[in-house]
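Model it.
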Amino acid sequence: MTENATTERRPQYAVFIYEAVPPEDLPPDVMAGHIGLPEKIAAAGGRVVAGLGFQDPSTTTAVRGDLLTDGPFVETKEALAGIYVLEARDLDHALELARMTPIVSGGVEVRPLVDFQVLP
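Modeled.
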């Protein structure tokens, strides 16, 4: 690995995973696909920086000012099931990498991140 490869900052993208199937009902091959996703993305020239899976939407509490309500902020058939952050060459590359995300019924959303880092 060259020095440029270790210090080069590449654009980061958030990949939001929307799934209609609750996490506990995901087929084993889909779960295995999620576990192996960082390696697949690395093999395709990207890098997963962080990732989180969310618990079932029924565990969500929405906050609107002083009002607390059970359930997600927006009711949809597909719920936000997780998020990961990846580095890619550009948006087209990020979209290519995001297509590798295993989904049973739903999809992913890719959003470029604004770099708010203040540390060198």
